[in-house]
Amino acid sequence: MYWLDRKNKQIAEMFSSISPTYDLLNHLLSFNIDKMWRRKAISLLQDSVFLDVATGTGDVLLEIKKRFDNPKLIGIDLSLDMLKIAKRKVEGAHFVCTPAEHLPFNDNVFDGVVIAFGLRNVVDRVSALFEFKRVLKSGGKLVILEFNRPVNRFFGRLYEFYSFTFMPFIGRLISKDKNAYTYLPKSIRRFPDVEFLKSMMESVGFKDVYYKALTFGVSFIHCGVKP
Ligand SMILES: C[S@@+](CC[C@H](N)C(=O)[O-])C[C@H]1O[C@@H](n2cnc3c(N)ncnc32)[C@H](O)[C@@H]1O
Predict the structure, then answer these.
(1) Which of 37, 28, 29 is nearest to 217 (CA)?
(2) Which band of pLDDT confidence, cut at 50, 70 and 90, is reported for residue 116?
(3) Of 134, 186, 123, 144, which Cα lies nearest the Cα of 53?
(4) How many angstroms separate the alpha carbon of residue 146 from the centre of ligand 1?
(5) How far does the centroid of ligand 1 lie from the alpha carbon of residue 191, in Å?
(6) Cα-based distances in Å from 116 to 10, 55, 119, 133
(7) 74 forms bridges with which residues in the sheet?
(8) What is the torsional sign of CA 58, 75, 190, 10?
């Protein structure tokens, strides 16, 4: 049994409140680059049983479906409203409303676990990483796709303006949620840097851990294998 703490509940409520406009804003604010990032992350996976953690509206699962023949797909999320949209979009997938910190699955069942733009929001990241390792088969891969802070100074400044001024303005206008799109850049700032995340994955027991930057370091993919 896992008790959701206050922060988990607030995060679930926030995502539920923006769920109707989530897809529109996601693609609009990233100029559709988010789709390419997800495709890159998924290209690291191998057949055939997949868990998408913090699946949201199911875009990762849609990409997995395009790439693999008859994959077995499970998506989990804290927000029931996000999951309702995912269920309509991804035929044949199964969905469970549960936190990443407590996965209701047996040990050693998945070939791949993916979490895209979700780990930043997870309250207890270490417990979540242990859970990802537990449910993966030996040789299975964990792929994390997450925003980070661009390394290039000029691009970094541009990105700061974009994410702290422009994005909250458009986000508020379309989603009508005052806080969600100011929370996003703040949560990116608070997220561990890429080396720290790599060492967290290694301490939990993943091997062959590496990361690579996407689009000047706006996003990063981290990948690790369960021994
Ligand atoms: C930015 S969305 C990402 C959705 C999707 N993966 C994508 O690529 O668009 C983050 C999602 O993480 C979910 N989430 C946040 N904390 C979570 C947790 N501890 N366990 C499971 N899901 C969580 C939210 O409800 C939200 O749907």
Answers:
(1) 37
(2) very high
(3) 144
(4) 11
(5) 15
(6) 20, 8, 7, 16
(7) 51, 94
(8) positive
pTM of the predicted model over 0.85: yes
Which residues make beta-bridge pairs with 75? 52, 95
Cα(164) to centroid(ligand 1), Å: 21
| Substitution site in 9, 57, 74, 82 for ligand 1 pocket (most atoms within 8 Å of beta carbon) | 82
SS3 70: coil
- Domains along the chain with CATH numbers: 6-225 (3.40.50.150)
Q: Is residue 220 within 6 Å of ligand 1 at its C-beta?
A: no
Alpha helices in 43-79 (DSSP H): 59-67
58 CA distance to ligand 1 centroid (A)?
10
Interval between CA 90 and ligand 1 midpoint (Å): 16
Both tokens of 158, joined, read 């541009």
| Burial track 1-19 (b if 16+ CB lie within 10 A, e otherwise) | eeebeeebeebbebbbbbb
Whether the bond between 199 and the residue before it is cis, its omega within 30 degrees of 0, is no
For ligand 1, atom 15: residue with the closest CA: 121
pLDDT in tens, 137-159: 999 999 999 988 787 777 777 77
77 Cβ below 6 A of ligand 1: yes
**Each residue's pLDDT tens digit, 179-220:** 777 877 788 778 889 999 999 999 999 999 999 999 888 899
